[in-house]
Design brief:
With 135 residues, the chain is an alpha+beta fold. The protein contains 3 helices and 4 strands. The chain is globular.
Amino acid sequence: MSTFRFPKSERICNKSDIELLFSKSASLRKGSVILRFAFRESLAGESHRQVLIVVPKKRVKRAVDRNKLKRQLREIYRLNKLPEIEYGEGQDRTLLIALIYSGQPKAEYPVLEKQFNQAMAKMRSEIAEGLINKN
């Protein structure tokens, strides 16, 4: 099975998960990319990592630009996501991640990718150090 997939099971669709991310989560920022992340108990048969990609209308007015940024962020996530084992695969918890863009309407793909990778590395180190509540 290829690791370069982004199936629907890895996307956050549940309103309660979204509320959890925006109320009780840790946050970090690298450039134009903001990561909010939290853990919750896993349900049977679900992925151990789920992602929400947000490009706010307040920052990027034109729908064409918002959609392009969302496509770019999805592709960056798909190609650079980390193996689930680093987040505790086999445990009864799911890592919820909100990937939020907060920059100018036009962004370069390599710059976004670099900022995303820096943010993911910082998040991984915070989780490893135990700074984030793992329950």
